[in-house]
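Researcher: Batch entry, complex prediction.
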Amino acid sequence: MKLNLILFCTLIIFSLAKVNAHHQYRQSYLLLEQEKKLTVELKDEKTKLQIEESSKSGNARIKQVSKKQLGMKLPNKFQKRVISR
Amino acid sequence: MKHGMKNRYEFFELSKIRRRLVLVVILSIFVALFSRAFYVQVIKKDYYQFEGFKSSNKKIDLPAYRGKIYDRQGKVLAASAPVNSITVYLPVLNEERAKKGKNKKILKVKLLKLAKLLKMNFSDLDKKLKRKKRGEIVLKRQLDPKTASKVMALNIKGITSKKTYKRYYPNDIFSAHAVGLATADGVGKEGIEKFMNTKLAGKGGSKKVIWDSKERTVGGLGEVVVPVDGKDIHLTIDSRLQEKMYGSLKKAVDKHEAKSGSAILIDSRTGEVIAMSNFPSYDPNNLTKNQTKFVKNKALIDVYEPGSTLKPISISLALEKNLINERMKFDTKDGKRRIGGRTITDHHPHGVMTVAQIVQKSSNVGTTMIFDNVKPSDLWGIYHNFGFGSKTGIEFPGERKGVHKSYESWKEIDFYTRTYGYGINGSLAQIVRAYTPFANEGELMPLTMIKSDEPVIGKKVLSKMTSNRMLKILEGVISPDGTAHQAIIPGYRVAGKTGTARGYDGGYDGTHMASFVGIAPASNPKFIMAVMIHAPTKGGIYGGVMAAPVFKEVVTEALKLYSIPQDGLTSPHNGNIANKVL
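Model: Structure tokens for the complex:
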């Protein structure tokens, strides 16, 4: 009778432990999935930034910005000096 | 206890009828429960198991990301970024719309906001939503994620947002022909996108997962097919020079009111294609119907008679065989020569000329005279060795090998016209490649667009001495006395050759193909560039006028960007040039 009681208690404890382990597994899996999703989002963000960098660093745009916003201009032939070797 | 009073048991005791009635009711309940259990667990077992599995288990597709395409500087030329498709499940939305009162007004306001976000007229949206079609319809494709999240924030029942990917080409129109095009489904359709599709596409996967009531993934079922992402590709293209080349071609085509223009710039030592462009081009980010006719990469697919740009190759044969030397003179008289019943002419009569002058002035008559003692098989052989009649091997779909007929079918006139580049045809890529031996001590280099660390092995087609002698002769073309003085680049020695050939479209169509192939710096070659302007109608027809300025603009930029040391100092005041000084 006593042994049966012990075994019954053990069974209850292990059953609860199994339920808890399963719950922990689900929680961890959920977190893992969220992290994976975040990885994908960051990867996408990186791609978007690369595309943006590429489209904004084109020569044509740089020339336009340097002329219009920075007021830069090419020197004329009288402003150039040749440095002899 | 008083007599006649019922005891506790007697008091609660039911009549026989009542007892039976209760028993029947209880039994009926048990029968009903048992029947239902039997129905669910035995008769409809498969159905309920399937439905239960379906609601808690789901197969998720794991997409493979299409590889990116980079230029030689590491700048992105093509990449897939997320976009969203907005869909609506009509039964759910229509149920909401059918409701009356305050909710209906709120929903209408939300739908007005939705139409605005999707940049649609409310009436058009309303029409779409009132369709008789049952189920799901797509309201908008390729919507940027920010707008999509604003749409989802409206919280309209039945509206969902699905993430997909769109291919972006940040270099727009400039690199369109080099990079190519992929469809909305991520399948390569043109150019490198098509040629390298298998490598770029990768392979999608899937996994089975368990969902909770909030539709969150809480467990895996072990059935996982791991996706394999597409590989990134690094091209030899330089997007900075792509922009420059496209701009220069556009300027030339517009100025001379030509039909089109193409150009290729390569690294003379490795055969790497640094820039390749055509005008008109197309916008790969937004290909319109009008632009579809410009999708073809003419620089690789169209073939034409190169004309005088082949003279350096044919004359190299005579130099190699020691039949001539640079100073040997030929009397071209009035610039006309009759062969096989036909007259070969020069644009201008030049009289007595040395071999170097024949190349410099591009004399057809002089060239034919050089070949009076050359066998047709030898001429055929040198063109064959220089890559005509075979593909360059470049990683591009649809490349053509051109026509280089066997010498056995040649008549006398066919032999002589081939000496100055007629009767044979090739693509601009073949022509630019055919100049690599002059820049590489006689080695023909393979063309490539994919960056690789492997050493490039060329094919020896000419002796070092002959190639150097021809390079020196070609420098004479880029001088004030030559046909391509417009290709002079201050500070650098440049070699090259012009070409003006008749346009061919099933027969000579009356148009001209003005071309130029140049090598810079001639002292230590780094770049070879071929330019072709098709059907110019204004300002002349000659390669030296039409194509040489494009070469000058692009190669000047390339020399600057790659910090190639100058051959000689120049002064902007007196205009000294390296070709003149050295």
